[in-house]
Amino acid sequence: STGSVTTAGAGSLGIDADTVDGSIGITSGTVGTTGEDAHGIRAYTQTGAVNITSTAVTTTGDGSRAISVEVAGGPPSIQAPQGALAAAPPATPPDISVTSGTASTTGDNSTAIDLDNALGGVFLESGTVSTDGLGSRGIDVNAVGDISIVSLDSVTTLGGASTGIFAQSNA
After folding, report:
1. What local confidence, expressed as pLDDT, does residue 139 receive?
2. Which one, of 106, 105, 108, lies nearest residue 161 by Cα?
3. Do residues 130 and 112 lie in contact, with contact meaning Cβ atoms separated by under 8 Å?
């Protein structure tokens, strides 16, 4: 959908995609959630590819990430729509490539962009990233390969114990 997705209520995810062997493709305009543990966009794969195009994602509940991608054994790629930002280079297995326009959260323990890759590296290009809750990181990246983060606008965290950008690689 290039329009909007809005959910309300605990555990009400805006967009949720899971696969074991298949690929995931998501295109979204604006995604907004209210409620505890209500992620804006969540993608999980073990062996497939993930391609996400998103303009703006906002969550307002505790434990609610704006964008959450986990690769246990496959390559996700998140890209912004045409005209928003220049898209990050496409991921090749098993890497993650992310381009995000706006990602914001206001709940406690609600990271704006959370990317975990158990098999490869991560490239992240972000526009505006903001959090306003305790223990809510702006960007949290964990990978076993190389990590590259390009922040084109700003990363703002207003809650206590909330790191702006955290990156850890086991390369």
Report:
1. 97
2. 108
3. yes
Q: What is the dihedral of CA 4, 8, 10, 14, to 10 degrees?
A: -10
Q: What pTM was computed for the model?
A: 0.87
Confidence of residue 128 (pLDDT cuts 50, 70, 90): very high
Residues 6+ apart with CB under 8 A from 83: none
Rounded to 5 degrees, what angle do the CA atoms 131, 38, 157 make? 5
Q: At 82, is the pLDDT very low, low, confident or very high (cuts 50, 70, 90)?
A: very low
What is the distance between the alpha carbons of residues 171 and 158, in angstroms, rounded to a whole number?
A: 31
First to last CA, the chain: 37
User: For strand 147-157 and strand 122-131, is the pairing parallel, antiparallel, or unpaired?
Assistant: parallel
**What is the residue whose two structure tokens read 């209520």?**
9
